[in-house]
Amino acid sequence: MLHKTQGIVLGVSPYNDIYGIVQVFTRDFGRVSYLLPRSYGKKSKLKMSLFFPLSVLDLEVEHLPLRELHRLKEAERQFPLYDLCTNMTKISVAFFLSEFLSRVLRESDHNESAFDFMKNSVEALEAAEKGVANFHLAFMFGLTRFLGIYPNVKWEGKHRFFDLMHGEFVKNMPQHSHYLNGTQSDFLVLLQRMNYSNMHLFRLSRNNRNTIVDYLLEYYRLHIYDFPPLKSIDILRELA
Fold this sequence. Notes:
The protein is α+β, with helices and mostly antiparallel strands.
């Protein structure tokens, strides 16, 4: 059966001599794997250039029950990605976030609010002129709201430790190693205030950003099943 939906490209991988596989997070079906032809006719509506990481597409797709790989019929970009395809900082952020999302989002997920957040985020990244090196921090923290794992960052002076496993501040040092001390927990207060409009105001060093992203990845790893290390993190760590 044919359906029209919207999708955000997470990545493309090889499949066989005829097809590749494109992972897409759709507004109506969650994360879906689609067969993507490797060769295209002049009139084809499935050009490889459409499937750059984080591209937001209008799709016509074929879905059949119990099928693991579905078929794309048509794809059209909702808005152009000029900076995301040419600005090296934005390219690095886009490749990191697309890999991050491909690990976080599950095929069973159907979350229209998460889709809308991600779509708005892509538009914000394309338009951003300042503070791009902080974008992934605001994104990763913001996404927790839509995945049901938003931490309780309400701060009380007597609570000096943030328990990453339980997502809240605690008075005493946890009996496990997954926690932040008082100084490390200050980053959570910072993240709570950061958004795409003000991210340029947060003057973080490269080391600070790398430390924060490590805390965020550990938090996700504790709350998302089977969350593996990310290959693109090394490129992201070089952002000035």
